[in-house]
Amino acid sequence: MPANLTPEYKAAEQEYRQARDPSEKLACLERMLSLIPKHKGTEKMQADLKRRIAKLRDGLQKKSGRKGFAIKVEPEGAAQVVLIGPPNSGK
Fold first, then answer.
1. Cβ 49 vs Cβ 29: under 8 Å
2. Predicted TM-score of the model (pTM)
3. Where are the domains of the chain?
4. Which of 3, 47, 11 is nearest to 19 (CA)?
5. pLDDT in tens, 17-46
6. Residue 48 burial (CB count, 10 A)
7. Does residue 81 contact residue 73 with C-beta atoms inside 8 Å?
8. 88 dihedral zone (left: phi>0; alpha: psi -120 to 50; beta)
9. Are 28 and 16 in contact (CB under 8 A)?
10. pLDDT tens-place string over residues 78-87
């Protein structure tokens, strides 16, 4: 089914393709979603835009995550572990 996209949508899509910063891309995608015609022929395009928006939002939130360092303990030697309890208790 044809999408019949408007010139405004095509201009917003061109802006999205030229955007380099993830926050810029997110703003362009949201503008594209608001400009896209809402009918049966554009349902998959709308879903794709929503998927891209969600992916960019997750990427922006994960970047501001933990910035600490990890402590790594090297495994060495042989280890034995004993679990004590009644039989069939899910040890």
1. yes
2. 0.64
3. 7-63
4. 11
5. 999 999 999 999 999 999 998 989 899 999
6. 12
7. no
8. left
9. yes
10. 877 788 888 8
